[in-house]
Amino acid sequence: MTGVTTPGALSGITIIEVAERPAGEYAGKLLADFGAEVIKIERVGGAPTRHMGPFRADDIGGESTLFGYLNTNKKSLVLDLANPAGRATLDKLLARANALIDDHDEAWGTEHSLTSTAVAAAHPKLVHCIVTPFGQGAPPEWQKARPINVINAGGWAYHSPSEAAPDKPPLKGAGRFLPDYESGIDAAICVLASLHRQRGVPKEKSGGQFIDISEVEVQVNRIDCVLDRMLAGEAEPGPERTAYDMGGPSTSFACKDGHLYLFMTTQLHWQGLCTLMGDPAWAKEFPTDWLEFHCTRERVDDFREKIRPWIASQEKLPITEAAQKLGLAMVPVNTAADIPMNEQFVHRGFFQEVAHPVFGSVAYPTVPYKLSASPVRIASPAPALGAYDAELGGV
Amino acid sequence: MPQPDRGGPLAGIRVLEITKVWAGPYTGKYLAALGAEVIKVESASNIDEMRAYGGVDINSAPYFLSINQEVLSIQVNMKTDEGLELVRQMVAKTDIVIDNIRPGAMERSHLGYEDLKKIKPDVIQCSIKMWGNEGPLGYQTGYAPCFAALSGLGFLVGHEGETPRGMNMRYGDSTVGATAALACIAALHHRENTGEGQFIDLSAVEAMTSLVGDSLFAYSVTGEVPQPDGNFHPEMCPHGAYTCADGEWISIAVADEGEWQALGKILEADALAADPRYASLSLRLENRHALDEALNTLCFAQDASHLADRLRSAGVPAFRSQSSLDLCSDAYLWGRQGYRMVSDHKTGTRPIIGPPWRMHPDMAKVERGAPLLGEHNDYVYREILGLPRERLDDLIARKIVD
Question: What CA dihedral angle connects A46, A50, A56 and A57, to 10 degrees?
Fold first, then answer.
């Protein structure tokens, strides 16, 4: 099979991915979807994510949807990196590649001669990025942290949801890999920035860079304007589960056909809501400016208790649309089933139908950025194991 | 006065930032932390709210200082034609223009992509809006928890069997900002390849959706709607956060039998480790609520940090669930410059949350704290645009530069 042509912003760039976790694989996916040639090195038997669900009910243990999502537009090459021949093939690929993406711990890097120093010595022009839970130099046993450990170490779990009850466990976030995706974004950013630098360095100079991404630091960076005020002594840090909260009545409510989220902070919001509800008698007991000036815990509880039955009788789409027209930030809590039918997602073409040899033609979520000159598209589904072995020299 | 040479992979790239609050400024912060020269267009008559929260001094507002490190500030009143003309002159010297202001506002100021392209044919413009730049719902605006709810992410976060309340309501803006930075740098590569600039239309909602892409794709293939699932993990058990002494919590993730036995040993729970209900992953998953209860009982009297240390040493991935107080006093983060000091106009220095990456060689310097309003008027107007001193004084006197 000949190479798939991947026109796009990163056309002409070749990236080798030895990563084996969603963190590094997602970084690779972001770059592959921009049109880079991403060669995924897989162990004999296939990448660990090939063996992770969910699977279709009639194909349990078969084709992984997780792998199918994370590896669009990539090529698969099977190499046994413990074997000198396999390792030599990798070196050949690195010699012609622009970047290498890894997400293993340091012991693995040492074992496979893929530490930052080993790679810089052998391939001085290469951009080399390693994503790890706590960054390079962390104690070895910390480097085995899993996504739930990362999101707990980084603070988001402890403070989620807002108004977390002291007796309810901190939450891992959406799905299994939320912190991996956050780190994948930062890894992709740094690799692209570094490749930009590589272009500008004269051919005789090295041009390579080593990039060390700490997943926990990505988590911490995402809360900069809340946590940094505490670091700087402008706000008080503490053991409260509510330390990141903003207060006020904004939260999710159950409605007739699911859930909706109501965001309210101003008198205008309150007026809009009263109009939307048809000015019920109970609302008149609240001061018109209560959100700005009289927003006590008791009043918030009272408000939620009073509005709950009304929201419970509403359907999420019609009521939130009417709310938006009144300037109220009330929105449906969309499920995976709602989103492909949402008119704005449809309008923007967020989903793309792609034929997959096992799944058939299915809708792929694409990317949140529409690039006018180099639009992202899924040119090929995730590769079959070793699909490019013959071309690329695999085992 | 010339600006210091900060190095970094984006050295030589100039960015104009017409942004407010959090998402857009986070993009600027990231690009600056990679070495780009980022110029924030501001005005005293239309101030970034972040300069107003939490104090009266717009030059030392905590929220603003927490984000805008290594960003330059210039003043210009964009409600005047002359002010807009100055912005257009800056566009001519800029590689990337970012905005996250209201839908339609850039176009009304004749700063839409078609306008900018006439000024600088290869300009890259990135516009960040809740729903993107147009479309049937493009008129709507909202706040981070609204993006999260609309995106499909919010629904998946909640304790099992309860109304899904989503991540903490602060979650979202910063991720959107990082996503925009990624798209901007990709567009720089396209420009290098082809000489062409482009327009990037970024949807904040879709940026959040991308964080649950695997769940949406699984639904596409299987037809099963993913549900809010607390700390459930179909491939690991136990997998959760467990309550320790003094209201602290520990996260534990067990993937295989070796880790399961090691957990039993450290907790001195022979009965648990030998319990036939928990003898395999599938049995543990089946009986996970009882198992979670048992672990809560076993952890209850233990110190979370100490227990996590012992578990990790025994090969069981575990970490304390960190509060804001834990994070602020985290010696490891301080030790490796996860937190670092930058300059501060009022107090001399200020701790910030530094970039989550290290690069070697040629990491961009991050040393200067957020700018005073208009701190770089001289540099931008006089050095970059080449205006004479008298002209700038006149613009200031007439509040075009305000």
Answer: 80
Classify the C-alpha dihedral B167-B170-B174-B176 as positive or negative: positive
Q: Quote the CA–CA distance of A274 and A255 in Å, as a whole number.
A: 18
Tell the CATH superfamily of the A251-337 domain. formyl-coa transferase, domain 3 (3.30.1540.10)
Tokens linked to A236: 């008080």
Residues in B touching A175 (Cβ below 8 Å): 156, 212, 214-215, 226
pLDDT digits (tens, 9 = 90+) for B9-40: 999 999 999 999 999 999 999 999 999 999 99
Contact B221, A65 (CB under 8 A): yes
**pLDDT confidence bin for A391, thresholds 50/70/90:** confident
ipTM over 0.95: yes
Give bridge partners of residue B198 from the DSSP assignment.
B124
What is the model's pLDDT at position A395?
Answer: 59
Q: What are the Cα distances from residue B213, in Å, to A36, A64, A371, B360?
A: 20, 14, 19, 32
Cis peptide before B388 (omega within 30 of 0): no
* B362–A169 C-beta distance less than 8 A: no
- Chain A positions touching B146 (Cβ under 8 A) are 261, 263, 329, 331
Give pTM, 2 decimals.
0.98
Q: What is the topology classification, in CATH, of domain A14-221+350-392?
A: Rossmann fold (3.40.50)
Q: Chain A neighbours among B 289-318 (CB < 8 Å)?
A: 312-313, 315, 317-318
Six token digits for residue A181: 């995706």
Q: How are the residues of chain B apportioned to helix, strand and coil, as percentages rounded to the nearest 5?
A: 40, 15, 40
A343: number of Cβ within 10 Å: 10
Contact between residue B95 and residue B14 where contact means Cβ atoms under 8 Å apart = yes
The answer for residues whose C-beta is within 8 angstroms of residue B101's C-beta and 6 or more apart is B18, B19, B20
Cα–chain center distance at A346: 21
Total residues belonging to chain A: 395
Question: Phi, psi at residue B186, to the nearest 5°?
Answer: -60, -40
Residue A368: partners with Cβ closer than 8 Å, 6 or more residues away: A350, B179, B202, B203, B204, B205, B206, B207, B209, B210
**In chain B, what residues touch A160 (CB-CB under 8 Å)?**
157, 166-168, 171
**What's the whole-number mean pLDDT along residues B299-328?**
98
Nearest to B61 by CA among A223, A228, A247, A292: A228
* Structural fold of domain B239-327: formyl-coa transferase, domain 3 (3.30.1540)
No. of H helices and E strands in chain A?
A: 15, 12
Chain B residues with beta carbon closer than 8 angstroms to that of A335: 152, 155, 225-226
Condensed to tens digits (0 to 9), the pLDDT of residues B24-81 reads: 999 999 999 999 999 999 999 999 999 988 777 999 999 999 999 999 999 999 999 9
Domain parsing of chain A, residue ranges: 14-221+350-392, 251-337
Burial class (CB in 10 A: 0-12, 13-18, 19+), A165: exposed
Q: Which CATH number fits domain B14-211+337-397: 3.40.50.150, 3.40.50.300, 3.40.50.10540, 3.40.640.10?
A: 3.40.50.10540
The amino acid that residue B340 corresponds to is R
Alpha helices in chain A (DSSP H): 22-33, 65-70, 84-96, 106-111, 116-122, 147-153, 178-200, 215-221, 224-231, 267-277, 290-293, 297-312, 316-325, 343-348, 389-392
Buried b / exposed e over A280-317, threshold 16 CB at 10 Å, is eeebeebeeebbeeebeeebbeebeeebeebbeebebb
Using CA atoms, how far residue B204 sits from A149, B148, B165, in Å, is 27, 9, 19
Q: Where are the beta strands (DSSP E) in B245-333?
A: 249-253, 318-320
CB contact under 8 A, A152 and B322: yes
Q: Where are the domains of chain B?
A: 14-211+337-397, 239-327
